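I'd like us to work through together how a protein chain folds, taking it slowly. To get us started, please write out a protein record for me. Label the sequence line and the structure token line clearly, so we can match residues to local backbone shapes. Once you have written the record down, we can walk along the chain together.
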Amino acid sequence: IPMTFFSPTTPPIARRTTMSVPLEIPKDTQYPNSKVVRFAVPSDKRNWNVMLPNYKPAVLNLHDQGLEKASWNVVGKNASYEGHYTVEKGYPCNPLGRTGIFGRGHLTEFGPNFISIPIVTRFQDQGCSDSLDTPLEVLVRINDNKEVFLPEFKTTKDVILTEEFVKILTSSISTNEAAQVLRDGVKRLLRRGILLKRGAVESELNTDNAWVEVFMTSYHDDDDETLKYLYFDQQHPAYQWVEVKHGLFKDKVHAKYFERANYSRRASQYVGSNIAI
């Protein structure tokens, strides 16, 4: 069955589940790689407009840099894709609501921290992409604990394709003249990306004053003419092609949008029922 490409038609409300259905911050939830515990916040108290008189979150700034004087909601710099966010006493307020932690946590910037997450897929058996039995492979990053994640690249507002991502993707292509055909193929592939998510997500790194906003984009080699030639050398050992299987992604955000990537390209018959959400 050939892959059909089209723009996702998911209603805007469904794309912003994290905004319409606030998550509860349970008691004794520890911030990653720290001993700091979040202040418990019920789901109906996440919204900044709802009073929470006894709210006293712990303060956590894991970087030396403090809050510099800044103009918030500046277009092209620190404006959020969720719209205008509140600023209290000089500190930006997370548009997803209270998190139980005040400060910046592990994040490098107060306000929005933009991350590009490319979802790059290919069929394992490039010669049989019309078979329902053809395994799908996805480009992943594997950490020291052998945990599998989608690649993530720090970026700035409106920059979806980072130079680092393109460099890693094309690292195995030689510089000779014959390789230019392959480089042109990569350029065409990257121009056909489908933007799945642009905006704030519920991340364990989020705080009251710093939050993650993602560009989640799907790329698939529908012609089977480019990605089958790309591999990753010793310069980038953390990046690999892996076969899609049940429970591949433990990160819920990665799992959710990986499934959406395949539905958006009508490839759900291959992997939709195998993704752990």
In short: The radius of gyration is 20 Å. Residues 252-264 form the longest helix (13 residues). Residues 1-21, 267-277 have pLDDT under 50 and may be disordered. The CA atoms of residues 167 and 173 lie 10 Å apart.
